[in-house]
């Protein structure tokens, strides 16, 4: 008797007994083991694109392709834009990517009248400088001249002519909480009322006082509820008096 042996491991059959097709992933190599050229082309294209970007960046950094051709200054009211540009020390023709904006902004910020500044690149070939100037809200008399101070108490300029601003009665220092409270009050007054103030002072953060034209005294109190106090004072000033108290605007007094 002849026996026929079949190795089931080598023959995978379906339910009808027919051999199944080999379902393993097909390695799409050609007979010499080479992969298709599509992947190689994509790789080469990616490398070329990266090299082009690197070349463009180097060209922008080291050549005048994207160099500074204009410097625009905005926000100035008193300062000369030419002074701002000169202080920035940014040179025309410098490649834009070589401009270090931080030191330029720091140099401009050192100008006493400058409160804040922003220096930005404006592609492809510009620099934008935005300045916020300090605004004088009062003056102090020191060493024979009039010094302008802003709402923060910063002494940023001086002039020989008497300013048309309220005088801060404390001429020793403006770097105190009481003085800053007084400056905050006068800065927040409506324009018509502020124009009548000749002096401001404070013996504490809750002790702000104003002097109006005609030597009228106003006890203001702290720098809170400024709008309500200004409205109340407007009503009181229609009455004859020399001293007005609006520190509690709901319960004002005058005499």
UniProtKB/TrEMBL annotation:
Note the Gene3D superfamilies from the entry. Answer: membrane protein fhac
Q: Which keywords are on file for this protein?
A: Cell cycle, Cell division, Cell membrane, Membrane, Transmembrane, Transmembrane helix
Localization per record: Membrane
Q: Please state every residue range assigned to the domain named POTRA.
A: 66-134
Predominant subcellular localization, coarse grouping: membrane
Asked whether the keyword Glycosyltransferase is assigned, the reply is no
> From start to end residue, where is composition biased (Basic and acidic residues)?
1-30
Q: Which residues cross the membrane?
A: 43-62
Report any Pfam family annotated for this entry.
Answer: FtsQ_DivIB_C
User: Sorted alphabetically, which PANTHER family does this protein's record hold?
Assistant: CELL DIVISION PROTEIN DIVIB, CELL DIVISION PROTEIN FTSQ
Q: What is this protein called?
A: Cell division protein FtsQ
Q: Which lineage do the record's taxonomy fields give for this organism?
A: Bacteria, Bacillati, Actinomycetota, Actinomycetes, Mycobacteriales
